[in-house]
Amino acid sequence: MYYYKFNIADWHLATSHLSLEEEAIYFRLINYYYDTEQAIPEETQSVIRRLRLGSYSEIVGIILKEFFTLESDGWHHKRCDDEISQYHDKAEVNQVNGKKGGRPKKTQTVSKDNPDITLTNNHKPITNNHIKDITPVGVSDSVFNDYLKIRKAQKKPWTSTAQKLMENEAKKAGISLQEAMEVCCARGWIGFKAEWHKPDEKKLGQLPLGTDQQIAHAYEVECGGDPTKARFNSYFEMRKFVENFRDKQKRALQA
User: Fold this and answer.
1) Which whole-number Å values give the CA distances from 175 to 51, 55, 181, 182, 214, in the listed order?
2) Which of 5, 52, 190, 255 is deepest in the core (most CB within 10 A)?
3) Distance (Å, rounded) from C-alpha 143 to C-alpha 153?
4) Average pLDDT over all residues of the chain
């Protein structure tokens, strides 16, 4: 592939917990994946050398385990595989149309601003808002499929607009897109509003919500109130601590 669509909101949602180095390495791996249109080999030395990541082999391994799935032919990335498949499907359609003359019927008009959009004879653009049921970045396939069943039962297609609205509302509520969909699945909602998601305030007062100050305070408490011990030896230690506390919070709120 010579190019691919880059969804800024999806990327930020999936990588907001990464350090600058981790995000840069993940970005290189994604670009390599699209460029070669192949899974990353299980033996990653050649890829690490090609991408000049020799000093970051440990981080490469962490990123692969978090964002990729190891299969018989190497490390696969579902979002990339879907995009590559769509790219080739579109290329085949364009090739067939090219053999037929490469022009739409006389009753149709091609948009000058975007040749990919064909207008009907009444000059109203065909909606381009509907997107295929591709699992958003940061959401598990099982949760997304369960959520789609609810929308399809109500004949509500999953669109880019619907995804953007849910991402914004989830952000307002201070939860991830996956957590918002889990709430929808549990309550049978086709949409999500931050104002609908109000965890028990008493429980929230007893738990860190995830801000830097609250995490730092929680870690100090964990160290017996001694501020000299409230230090993380490494970024990965801090990340593990934060993840554990958020898991505890989630379990407590669901209790």
Assistant:
1) 34, 34, 10, 11, 16
2) 190
3) 16
4) 77
